[in-house]
Amino acid sequence: MSPTFLMPLAPxxxxxxxxxxxxxxxxxxxxxxxxxxxxxxxxxxxxxxxLALEDARADRGYQYLLKNGQxxxxxxxxxxxxxxxxxxxxxxxxxIAESECGKGYAGEAVRQVLGIAFGELGLARIEADCRVxxxxxxxxxxxxxxxxxxxxxxxxxxxxxxYDRLHFECHAPAR
Length: 175
What we know:
This protein is of the alpha+beta class and 175 residues long. It has a single domain, classed as Aminopeptidase (3-Layer(aba) Sandwich), CATH 3.40.630. It is 30% helix and 35% strand. It has 5 helices and 7 strands. Strands 1-2-3-4-5-7-6 form a 7-stranded mixed β-sheet, sandwiched between helices. 27% of the residues are buried.
């Protein structure tokens, strides 16, 4: 695995982000619900990027790009649904380019974002979930210190079929 860097989304990423999302669209949509069609229309990525930057300013969510040493996007990772008062928590999501799967990038992205979450963002708990069939994603979470706390049945619908999900949590190190 080459060195990688987790970088916050920036307006200058729009063209590369559009290329990343378009190149991996079918791969992502085979496992998760697709983005609205407008996302791929002219200006759609830029609008989504502007909304993501506003979410970060308002402390609602944070999106990052995992890049290699040459600046190519390998994947995305985000902390959404930030809840401060009484919880100091967020929900983790990530996606890695189809061509880069199986190379350790998901684990590295999660490792880096946990450092940010529990460091500069001051969060105390991160939640994540994955479909039962997604053994690789569950492994990424477990290797990064997450523990499974639940299993919901028929809780995710994709292409007309219902799936079970596993629920995980990770807590900030004791200070």
